Amino acid sequence: MNIEKLEIEISSSGHITNSYILYNDKNIVIIDPADKFNIFKKKIEDEKLNLEYVLLTHAHVDHILALYEILKEYDVRVIVNKKEKDMLEAKVNNCASIFALKQQPFNLEKFIFVDDGDCIDFDGINIKAISTPGHTVGSSCYYIEDEKVLFTGDTIFTTSFGRTDLPTGSSEDMINSIVYLFRHYSNCLIYPGHGASNVKLSDIFDRINRCVKVYFNLDLQKLI
Ligand SMILES: [Fe+2]
Question: What spacing in Å lies between the alpha carbon of 194 and ligand 1's midpoint?
């Protein structure tokens, strides 16, 4: 399996969000189709790829913009935690206004709603959804055990963790999610929704702990 990282500029704001493409020969999975549908379309057409799944780490607008057109063009299943449903239906604010955009609801026909521990079979590659609420209530990480990689969305970055002050966010949940990840996935390489990737989670413990001390006045060392 190969992982390609795309750093996609959100057209309306200039902000950068990471999308990842997982390749299993000609079959692919897109994790967080941030924006610029044509980038994905060109790749799929030029390389004759078969898009099997789109995985969403959460439903914030900067992670889903190209999905509207992907759903029109391809017969693809979309995997997302069931607690993000309200945001996808535009019943909960997905932060569109921060990016100078208007929130648009999805038709959920092609969506498969998952829960903590559910697995997706990508042609023999097992991808496990892990619930990591905090940034949003339905935020998930996706874990590929064979490769020891973890796609962390906006739960954890290589320098910090996601905001908890946006709709459905929770500081208490975020702490629990951070502790859970360090307890069980320390030996994984992380691929976050923004910034650097391909960094071992255990190698950023001190940095994350400094942020936890500043924001939450807690010591991760004592919680793990
Ligand atoms: Fe986000």
Answer: 9
Question: What's 101's DSSP letter?
Answer: -
Give the distance (Å) from ligand 1 centre to CA of residue 187. Answer: 24
Three-class DSSP labels, 72-95: HHCCCEEEEEHHHHHHHCCCCCCC
Contact call for residues 130 and 142 (beta carbons, < 8 A) = yes
What pTM was computed for the model?
A: 0.97
DSSP helix/strand/coil, 103: coil
What are the DSSP calls for 135-201, one per residue? SSTT-EEEEEGGGTEEEEETTB-SS-B--SSSTT--HHHHHHHHHHHHHH-TTSEEEESSS--SEEG
135 CA from centroid of ligand 1 (Å):
7
- The CA-based diameter of the chain, rounded to the nearest angstrom, is 51
Domains with residue ranges and CATH for the chain: 2-114+121-223 (3.60.15.10)
Count the neighbouring beta carbons within 10 Å of the beta carbon of residue 186. Answer: 13
Report yes or no: 198 and 191 within 8 Å, Cβ to Cβ.
Answer: yes
Q: Which two three-digit tokens encode residue 123?
A: 């042609």
pLDDT in tens, 53-64: 999 999 999 999
For residue 155, report the distance from its CA to the centre of ligand 1, in Å: 8
Amino acid at 111: F
DSSP 111-136: EEEE-TT-EEEETTEEEEEEE-TTSS
**Per-residue pLDDT tens for 128-157?**
999 999 999 999 999 999 999 999 999 999
